[in-house]
Amino acid sequence: MIPIDLKGRKALITGGESGLGAATAKSLAQAGADVAITYHDAPEAAEAVAASAKAFGVKAAVIRLADVANQSDVTALFQWMDQEFGGVDILVNNAGIDGVHALCGESDPVAWRRVIDVDLVGAYNCAHEAVTRMGKSGRGVIINTTSVHEFIPWAGYSAYTSAKAGLGMFSKTLAQEVAVQGIRVIAIAPGAIKTPINAGVWQDPKGLADLDAKIPMGRIGEPDEIGHTIAFLCSDLAGYITGITVAIDGGMLLYPDFRHGG
């Protein structure tokens, strides 16, 4: 047996009250990590995630993060981590938004910029605080959640795709900067995952069939498949992995329409 052992590690998950964040909290707790979960406007959901984490015998706590794009809010968050958990060993930058569908020429510049601020600047703000702490301890893992749309264009969501592509390169550059300090930085690119945010698609038979056709494995992913991958990447079993984007997408990036030829 090769166990994933995160006992004694202190993990911070932004946007951990539902979906991929909740699944990540569960998986990290199962592996033995203490978990801190930020939420924006759903305290009851966050508390439920924390309660499920505690069932694995770890410490879990929640805190409201008003705006991940606001540096002072993020600084206060990490000061809370110092007080409540004694630092941070794992940061999962999961908080993000996709914005409103709008073609570039019809989009609202303020709304467009907001997606960039949350998805890219927010991840930078948290990483900025994390590396100063991880560097002192000589170890740490930062997981940045991008998307298959780090690679695949998505008409009407140019802010989202731009932020995710930028976050992928930020992850590589940061990994290059902090490797000497014992810090690893990895981006994960989920594909279509069965979460509440896209329930309107996978709960509709026609929408699900269309989605499955875009995935070589022929099915939508489960949230736990993201959480389990993150737990592995945060563990010493993945100790020689840094500076890459790991696609967790059932093969969506393989462009399944080409399986029968060009």
From N to C, what is the helix and strand string? EHEHEHEHEHEHHHE
Query: For the residues shown, what is the average pLDDT?
Result: 95
The CATH architecture assignment turns out to be: 3-Layer(aba) Sandwich
The helix/strand class is: alpha/beta
Q: Helicity range of the residues?
A: 40-55%
For the record, the count of structural domains works out to 1
Which topology does CATH recognise? Answer: Rossmann fold
Molecular shape: globular
Estimate the strand proportion: 5-15%
First-to-last CA distance: 43 Å
**Biggest sheet: strands, sense, closure?**
7 strands, parallel
- Count of DSSP strands: 7
Strand order of the largest sheet: 3-2-1-4-5-6-7
Work out the radius of gyration.
18 Å
Q: By CATH's scheme, which homologous superfamily applies?
A: NAD(P)-binding Rossmann-like Domain
Number of helices: 8
CATH class: Alpha Beta
Poorly predicted sequence stretches spanning 5 or more consecutive residues: none
Write the layout of secondary structure elements.
Elements: E1 10-13, H1 19-30, E2 34-39, H2 43-54, E3 60-64, H3 71-85, E4 90-93, H4 109-137, E5 140-145, H5 158-178, E6 183-190, H6 199-202, H7 205-213, H8 223-234, E7 245-248
Parallel strand pairs: 1-2, 1-4, 2-3, 4-5, 5-6, 6-7
